[in-house]
Design goal:
- The structure holds two protein chains of two kinds.
- Chain A is mainly alpha-helical.
- Helix content of chain A is about 75%, strand content about 5%.
- Chain A is built from twelve helices and five strands.
- In chain A, a hairpin with a 4-residue loop joins strand 1 (about 1-5) and strand 2.
- The radius of gyration of chain B is 24 Å and the shape is flat.
- The longest helix of chain B is centred in the last third of the chain and has 21 residues, at about 230-250.
- In chain B, the strands form three sheets. In chain B, strands 2-12-11-4-7-8 form a six-stranded mixed β-sheet.
- In chain B, helix 6 packs across helix 7.
- In chain B, a hairpin with a 4-residue loop joins strand 9 and strand 10.
- Chain B has helices spanning about 1-20, 20-30, 115-120, 120-125, 145-155, 215-230, 230-250, and strands at about 35-40, 45, 55-60, 70-75, 75-90, 90-105, 105-110, 165, 170, 175-185, 190-200, 200-215.
- The chains are: A mainly alpha, B alpha+beta.
- At the A-B interface, strand 1, helix 3, helix 5, helix 10 and helix 11 of A face strand 5, strand 6, helix 5, helix 6 and helix 7 of B.
Amino acid sequence: MQVYLPIAEMSIPVEMIFLLGAFVGFVSGMFGVGGGFLTTPLLIFMGIPPAVAVGTQSCQLVASGVSGVMGYWRKGSVDFMVGSVMLGGGLMGSLLGIFIFKFIRYLGQIDLIISLLYILFLGSVGLMMLFEGTFTMFKKKSMRSEFNRMKSPSLLSRLPYKMRFPRSKLYISVFVPGGIGFVGGFLVSTMGIGGGFLLVPAMIYILGMPTLLVAGTSLFQIIFTSAFAAIMHAIVNHSVDVLLAVILILGGVLGARLGVLVSRRIAGARGRVLLALLVLAVCAQLGYNLFLEPSQLYVMTIK
Amino acid sequence: MRRHILSTCRLIALGLLAFAPLKIAAPAYAQKEDEFFVELALNHIDITTGFTGAEIRLFGYRKDKDSEIAIYIKGPEKNMTIWKKAKVLGAWVNRYSETYKHMPLYYDYALGKPEEDTAKNESLFLKNGIGVLSLFPVDQRSEKTNFRDALIADREKSRLYPIKPKEIRFLNENFFRVTFQVPAAAPTGQYSIESFLIKNGKILERDTESLAVEQVGLNAFLFNAAKDQAVLYALSCIVFALVTGWFFSAIRVKP
């Protein structure tokens, strides 16, 4: 069934968008990542204008985030304290990102910079998770403890304003979770992604949070940063398409429920390997587009 | 308003004429009206939620059966930039560009006898915006350029520019009909339709019509809300997202 989107001003098949939403929702619920790194490129691939894709999918992140967090909350695997501190940094990060985004766009070449950022972040994070996950799967023992021992006596532990986070059994400076949140918020407004794929490993490796709490806590933070980003996009660029959002959300919440259910059956390490492979696949696709001679040498932009 | 009534009258008259015996009706009409006119069957296209494209139908009359007719339709204009990718440090990036100003987002045209008319009146067509090449600056019309052709190819692919002109269908020697196709990807805004009566390489008459392509109903409501009530619109989107997310997670799935 074709539906004409009021803001994107184009006609799209509803089933495709619904399935896309469900798929991303499934990934989101399963791994605790927002899934923006999948939605944005896929929507653009379907012909949705990039500004509308970014603005609308941040709205969808809110819904799949809430749905996911409720699931994790019932299992008691959300650390609201760490989440709130991260959120403080996240809002500041997204505010800064909005201004930087405008500046890059003013310089031109926004597509190139976004592609390079995606490849850089997805590539490094994907590889890191893949190695750690595979290592843990075969050795039956986490490398995380070694990471913590390596990290803790370093600069991070010398930062001021230490705070106790009983749920995660951490005693750490607020600047660490705040800083991670800041980077996440920055990514929301510059790259149009929740940043979960970066937050999840950062919370495991840098913060040293228990893996069980990470997914729910990162989703909790993403709800607010992406809501903030969606509101900014709607007010500044008028680029949130409510009809597209509704279809994505309905697909997304269903997918997210399934994802949470499945995540209980998958061991932490195996889940991380799967996520790593998914992240690397998107990264490879972007790299392929950037480094191989394109079939279309000419592209058009309309102003 | 006056114009609207007038055009409705003209349309009714035209309808009657088409079926009435021509010998009686045509001269009486021609005294009041010009030698040539074109009317739109509908002067607006409504985009609803289920919009998948539309047809624009035109009816017209010419008195002199030895004259030729050319009609073009043009959507709203924007500046278009064509980028050519080139290798920079191994990556393919947008390197070279050429900007064409005030290009119509949608364009199509119709001729009586496409090949014959184009051959006969080529320079006249180019001067008056008839044909895709006439949209480009003078120095880019004759010579093939990659940027120009890339732009045309891009538009042709979305069926927003024609590959070849439409044919004007004559109902009899004086009355004719043209149908243009508007794809779902057509831009919203004001369209203009320009018709020419041509004889011996000269334009004898011109007729201008306009057409509004707009979203209506729910779509128009959402479109306007997003522009005029941005804060309220944004908050409703977020509230919807929150409620839906919560609602679906609240449904307990029994293991």
